[in-house]
Amino acid sequence: HADFYIWAGHRDDQRAWIAAGQALQHALLRATVDGVSASFLNQPVEVPALRERLAEEFGIAGAVQCLLRLGYGPAVPPTPRRPMDDVIR
């Protein structure tokens, strides 16, 4: 089972982006603690016409910052990482 969530702010400037990111960070940390998985659906937010349509469809007066799906699913292995020596000199 998964639900969709929209992060939005009253403004669309750097201060609003930072505030939205901080709120999202807190929500994702809480979701992790509760065993909830998250996936970002950013493509519609990056297209101005689709971003406006999302706001209209969901009755949001502000600027849509992020579209997120939260839910429970099967455990998956972590994404493989390169050794630190390969990326830091």
What share of the residues does DSSP label as strand, in percent?
15-25%
Number of strands: 3
What does the largest sheet look like?
A: 3 strands, antiparallel
Structural class: alpha+beta
Roughly how much helix do the residues carry, as a percent range?
40-55%
Please tell me how large the radius of gyration is.
Answer: 16 Å
Spatial shape: globular
- The DSSP helix count reads 4
Distance between the termini: 43 Å
Order of helices and strands: EHEHHEH
Mean pLDDT: 90
Going across the biggest sheet, name each strand in turn. 1-3-2
* Poorly predicted spans: none
Q: Mind explaining what this structure looks like?
A:
This protein is α+β, with helices and mostly antiparallel strands. 43% of the residues lie in helices and 24% in strands. It is built from 4 helices and 3 strands; from the N terminus they run E-H-E-H-H-E-H. Strands 1-3-2 form a 3-stranded antiparallel β-sheet, with helices on both faces. The longest helix is centred in the first third of the chain and has 20 residues, at 14-33.
